[in-house]
């Protein structure tokens, strides 16, 4: 395989080429854009091995880019880019953030998530009966919450959402990408400077007060948390609602038993897997993966979406079944780089989905499913919009 396919024949299924690759072998040869011959892991066990085995590195000076990066000159690594570090360097940042994103903290934030959801649904009801669910609900819910958690001004959400979209858009021009890069750094640098002058009781405020990180590190950490914190959740929520509307029997089961929502969230995370490109690791010594020898220095890119559809791990994987146990899915990654905010994301999805379905029992698509625009050129998959409607009165 020479490139990661992104086009989908079904909006909810991984590209067919990835499934065929997995059926042929759980790990197979992959040609990276820089000419390096490495591997792509598509089988569940193979992906889990690469994610969790410490003999695979995430260091930026070792891994190969999965996508051509010649469209813009942006540094591979910035100070504080903990997503491109291995322990023990990575551990410094992980320890600073772990206590901020625990299950306990997510539970403490649940009432605030409910307040935000209900307020957005009130606005939807006033705007309706036809709205874009993404812009009206699924995007502002995690964006507003992440701004409050981090201590960033939500008043500038149009700016950072636009910049984030552009930076995640593989088809964006060099000019637009550079402009959004500069804008995002300026937005976060301004916010962090303000915290030096006036301390705040939020994640970034506490990091500033700790003195553990310099401002360059703080900007990078804030960027990672902000972009990952709203992009993945908003697209999972939007695409999840789309999937439920297209699987009415599953939607009916969830409406009949709201207690099903926890397993529903895990199944939607598995079934949809919005992180459809990467991640990448490089072997620092020879490692056997699913019976295949990966030599030291070779990089392995992974398809989390293909792994989550592996029939060896998940029976009837192409069937959306909210009652199944999807525990063990790899949508949040794994190993030392397991998603920091996974508990908060689960809470947002659980509360956001429950509130929406309760408020709008007749919710349905306002356009044919084939007309819903898909984010096929984006690093994080989903929809560009989701027009919905409901019965009034």
> What composes the largest sheet?
5 strands, mixed
Mean of the pLDDT scores?
92
**How do the helices and strands follow one another from N- to C-terminus?**
HEEHEHHEHHHHHHHHEEEEHHEE
Summing up helix and strand content along with how strands pair, one would put the structural category as: alpha+beta
Low-confidence segments, given as residue ranges, are: 68-73
Distance between the termini: 54 Å
Total strands: 10
The total count of helices amounts to 14
The proportion of residues forming helix, as a percent range, comes to: 40-55%
Sequence of strands across the biggest β-sheet: 1-2-8-5-3
Strand content: 5-15%
Radius of gyration computed on alpha carbons: 21 Å
Characterize the overall form. Answer: globular
Protein name: Cytochrome P450
InterPro entries: Cyt_P450, Cyt_P450_B, Cyt_P450_sf
Keywords: Heme, Iron, Metal-binding, Monooxygenase, Oxidoreductase
GO molecular function: heme binding; iron ion binding; monooxygenase activity; oxidoreductase activity, acting on paired donors, with incorporation or reduction of molecular oxygen
Quick summary:
With 393 residues, this protein is of the alpha+beta class.
Topology:
Layout: H1 16-24, E1 27-31, E2 37-41, H2 44-52, E3 56-57, H3 89-98, H4 103-127, E4 130-132, H5 133-138, H6 140-150, H7 157-167, H8 174-197, H9 203-210, H10 215-246, H11 248-256, H12 261-272, E5 280-283, E6 287-289, E7 292-294, E8 299-302, H13 304-307, H14 342-359, E9 364-365, E10 387-389
Parallel strand pairs: 2-8
Antiparallel strand pairs: 1-2, 3-5, 4-10, 5-8, 6-7, 9-10
């Amino acid at each position: 395989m020479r490139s990661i396919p992104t086009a989908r024949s079904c909006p909810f299924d991984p590209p067919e080429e990835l499934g065929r690759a997995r059926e042929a072998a759980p790990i197979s040869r992959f040609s990276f854009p820089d000419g390096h011959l490495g591997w792509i892991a598509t089988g569940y066990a193979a992906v889990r091995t690469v994610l969790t085995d410490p003999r695979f590195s995430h260091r930026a000076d070792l891994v190969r880019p999965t996508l051509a990066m010649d469209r813009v000159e942006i540094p591979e690594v910035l100070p504080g880019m903990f997503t491109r570090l291995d322990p023990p360097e990575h551990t410094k940042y992980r320890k600073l953030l772990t206590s901020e994103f625990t299950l306990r903290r997510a539970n403490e934030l649940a009432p605030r998530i409910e307040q935000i959801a209900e307020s957005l649904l009130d606005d939807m009801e006033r705007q309706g009966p036809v709205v874009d669910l993404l812009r009206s609900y699924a995007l502002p819910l995690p964006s507003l919450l992440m701004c409050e958690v981090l201590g960033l001004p939500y008043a500038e959400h149009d700016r950072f959402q636009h910049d984030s979209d552009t930076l995640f858009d593989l088809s964006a021009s060099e000019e637009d990408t550079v402009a959004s890069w500069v804008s995002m750094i300026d937005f976060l640098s301004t916010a962090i400077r303000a915290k030096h002058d006036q301390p705040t009781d939020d994640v970034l405020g506490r990091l500033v007060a700790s003195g553990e990180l310099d401002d360059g590190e703080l900007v990078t950490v804030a960027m990672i948390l902000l972009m990952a914190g709203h992009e993945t959740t908003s697209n999972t929520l939007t695409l999840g609602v789309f999937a439920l509307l297209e699987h009415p029997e599953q939607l009916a089961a969830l409406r009949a038993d709201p207690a099903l929502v926890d397993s529903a969230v895990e199944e939607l995370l598995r079934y949809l897997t919005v992180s459809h490109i990467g991640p990448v690791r490089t072997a620092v010594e020879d490692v056997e993966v699913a019976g295949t020898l990966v030599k030291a220095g070779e990089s392995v890119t992974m398809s989390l979406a293909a792994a989550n559809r592996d029939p060896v791990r998940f029976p009837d994987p192409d069937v959306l079944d909210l009652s199944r146990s999807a525990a063990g899915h790899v949508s949040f990654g794994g190993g030392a780089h397991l998603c920091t905010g996974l508990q908060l994301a689960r809470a947002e999805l659980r509360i956001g989905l429950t509130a929406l379905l309760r408020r709008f029992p007749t919710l349905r698509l306002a356009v044919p499913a084939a007309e819903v625009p898909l984010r096929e050129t984006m690093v994080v998959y989903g929809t560009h919009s989701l027009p919905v409607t409901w019965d009034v009165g």
